[in-house]
Amino acid sequence: MIYLDNSATTKPNPQVLDSFTKASTQYFGNASSIHGIGMDAERLLRKSREQAASLLEVYPNEIIFTSGGTEGNNLAIKGIALEHQNRGKHIITSSVEHPSVIETCQGLEALGFEVTYLDVDQSGLIEIDSLKKEMREDTILVSVMHVNNEIGMIQPIKEIGEVVQNYPKAFFHVDHVQGYGKVALDIQECHIDLCTISGHKIHGLKGTGVLYVKHNVRLFSLAHGGGQERRIRSGTENVAGIVSLVKAMRLAKENQPKLDEKLTSLKNVLIEQLHSLDRVVINTPKINSAPHIVNFSVRGLKPEVVIHALEDFDIFISTKSACSSKSADESAVLIACGKDRDIAISGLRVSMSYETTEKEIEFFCQKIKEVIKKLSEVMG
Amino acid sequence: MKGRNRKLFTTQLAYNVRQALRNFPAIKVDKKRDRMYIVLNGEDPEAIMARCRKIFGIQNMSVALKVENDETAIKEQALNLLTETENVRTFKVSTKRSNKEFPIGSQEFNQVLGGYLLANTENITVDVHQPDLEITVDIRPEATYLTSKKIQGATGLPVGSSGKSLLLLSGGIDSPVAGYLAMKRGVQLEAIHFHSPPYTSERAKEKVLDLAEKLTFYGHSIKVHIVPFTALQQKIHREIPHGYSMTVMRRMMMRISEAVAKQEGILSLITGESLGQVASQTMESMHAINAVTNYPVIRPLVTMDKDEIIRISEDIDMYDISIRPFEDCCTVFVPKQPKTKPKLEKVEQFEVNVEYDQDIQDILSSVETVVVEAKNKQEEEMEDLL
To answer: So which residues are the signal peptide here (chain B) (predicted)?
Structure first.
């Protein structure tokens, strides 16, 4: 099996699974119980929180454990909007965000909030000047993703943070789900108030995640109850899940420099090989893009057909993002980047991981070549 | 400290340090006659110092730089030490030269090094009486050690060097503090706890084990003997006039404790009693209770005020455990008006009615013994998970 859909989800690291199983059996207590078993679970939870904090270089009380990226993004955006709506009801985001951001913003529009969706340039990047133009006195939130899930471009988070910094009423949220472990992000330096991370994108388990919430930032809770997680997110702590997440975070961060080197060279091979093929257009920008994602379109070929043809060789890639693939044909991200419709409807994504090998990429290049040739003959 | 005694202490201390630092696998503990070196081999000195500050028997410690026996090298490193320490206006150099092959005598080297340091710094002068920083240069055959700032250790004696004692551990605030203070004088602990299910809950027992676990941090693993006390307590409640039941209960606890100590080859008992704190801790009560044993009963808290005890309890991180709200065997069956001045003769008379010998035998044969290991093991486990 050649799995090249790591932006959709990753295969859990065996070490992470091992920690999960052990934590589930040995520390199954409710971390809020006052007896010894509960206390052990609580101690483990505390250690996990400390380690997560040290990996992100923030304080332990700024770590809110969640169920993943979608919850993190929802909690950040709705939490700010509902808590601070008397400061203003204007939110800025971009037109290339993940559905869990875009749709959350649309949901808030229905509640009377006003949302500006920033345009992007041909590489998918936000222009700082247009952000500056859109910032207002009643802007309470700017939400921008770090690494785009479909084409992999890296937004200028530091510059955006500096702009938002000039508006004391506005908070800055970064969706770091595709970035963590691939492209470094300095939360302090970028003046980030909220930052979403997901476990299953970094070889952790589904249902785990972190939302960094700066210590002085108040959020309206989306889950009231027992008051866990700074009263922001009630619910019995998923200690084993949290342990597995923090382990995955550690492994990802430790491996990042080596991984970056490896994936960048694989990415270059991919782009070079794909570029030489007929009908193929590379959508991932050459610079300012993450090392693990290559997005390309095969003009005139339905992406589903290509995917299924590759599946015959046990190769797995995807069309745009798994979260968007259920909706309309064209990729909103590619459209936003100004691509023609025929390119926007034929986008394919290869996303790699630490397990991806040079051999696999060679094999993939060879097979995609054959597949395109064969399908082109049929479709003319 | 002299002769064989010293050797005993330093050997024990070296063992304790190795135990306490076993999470730092690269270190080497090197015991010399009057001091001990921990060779870091790359481990974090801050973390190791933090851990060592809790080890009884260490008077003071400092980070030492190992330098080759070479004048220039020593000078350079000493200068680094001096300039890297904050808030130093005056200093002093003290050289010890046990390596007589080193060409410069210790007095002379004081001047040589002092002169070099003066020449290479600004606004820093020598003060041989009250320097802000004393740089000690220890020129030994194998190398020269430079040390500067001294950090106060936990003092006391190495745990284990004063033998073993049995701590009556209730789960309240006082007894763990008593255990801690005894450890400070080198005592290795075992603990005994009286458990009266269903009047006292499983949680009360866990609380005691958690406290014992905290105590292991200052020494070794601790054996906790859990005594099933319900039947005897009920019997006392039935047979003894209520004003005296508490005194008799305490006497029974002493008898059982002495018996357990005897079995374990332990020569003394420790309690958390503090004079005048409660009815059982008046002079008369202590007299009546103590009368059942001629084992030494060590009472580290006997003259302390409650707030002093609480302060120590907080310092050693036990307070939060101690105040967990579970009944212990002393708070169930508490008579409305216990005698604050029980008379020994009366107590003895009342006890004649209770044929307790067999009860105590039964109890002794069903004591549950739990070995509470130093927390480090679990900590390690948790760190592996992460």
So the answer is: none
Between B279 and B183, where is the model more confident? B183
Is the pLDDT at A326 greater than 60? The verdict is no
Residue of higher predicted confidence among B3 and B68: B68
Domain range for A32 is: 14-251
Question: Can you tell me the distance from the alpha carbon of B380 to that of B374, in angstroms, rounded to the nearest whole number?
Answer: 11
Chosen for mutation from B205, B382, B384 (greatest number of chain A CBs closer than 10 Å) is B382
ipTM for the predicted complex comes to: 0.79
Whether A240 contacts A234, CB under 8 Å: no
The annotation status of B272 as a binding-site residue, yes or no, is yes
Does a cis peptide bond (omega within 30 degrees of 0) precede residue B198? yes
Residue A38: the pLDDT is: 83
Q: What tokens were used for A336? A: 């936003």
pLDDT band at residue B128 under the 50/70/90 scheme: confident
B93, β-bridge pairs: B135
**What pLDDT, in 10s, does the model give residues A197-223?**
999 999 999 999 999 999 999 999 999
- Distance CA(A155)–CA(A288), nearest Å, equals 8
CB A56 within 8 A of CB A181: no
List A195, A323, A337, A365, catalytic entry: A323
Closest B-chain CA to A45: B382
Structure confidence by residue, pLDDT tens digits, B288-303: 999 999 999 999 999 9
User: Which of B157, B7, B149, B151 lies closest to B86, judged by CA?
Assistant: B149
Max alpha carbon distance in chain B (Å)? 87
Q: Output b/e per residue, B228-252; b: 16+ Cβ within 10 A.
A: bbbebbebbeeebeebbbbbbbbbb
pLDDT on residue A31 = 86
For chain A, give the number of residues.
Answer: 380
Where a domain ends, among A207, A234, A251? A251
Name the domain count of chain A: 2
Structural contact between residues B183 and B56, judged by C-beta atoms closer than 8 angstroms: yes
Question: Which residue of B206, B378, B385 is in closest CB contact with A22?
Answer: B385
* Residues in chain B within 8 Å Cβ distance of A23: 385
Among A34, A35, A44, select the one facing B382 at the smallest CB separation: A44
Rounded to whole angstroms, the Cα distance separating A154 from A236 reads: 35
Nearest CA in chain A to B213: A36
Each residue's pLDDT tens digit, A32-64: 887 778 878 988 998 899 899 999 999 888 999
Q: A259-272 pLDDT, tens per residue? A: 999 999 999 999 99
Residue A50: predicted pLDDT: 87
Is A323 an annotated catalytic residue?
yes
Please state which CATH number belongs to domain B164-378. Answer: 3.40.50.620
CA distance B233 to B196: 8
The CATH fold assigned to B64-148 is VC0802-like (3.30.2130)
Would the CA dihedral through B1, B5, B9, B11 be positive or negative? positive
Averaged pLDDT score across all residues of chain A = 94
- Residues B362-372 as b/e (b if ≥16 CB within 10 A, e otherwise) read ebbeebeebeb
- Single out the residue of A217, A174, A177, A144 nearest to residue A70, CA to CA: A177
Q: Does A2 touch chain B (CB under 8 A)?
A: no
Q: Report domain extents, chain B.
A: 1-60, 64-148, 164-378
Both tokens of residue B96? 């010890």
Beta bridge partners of B371: B223
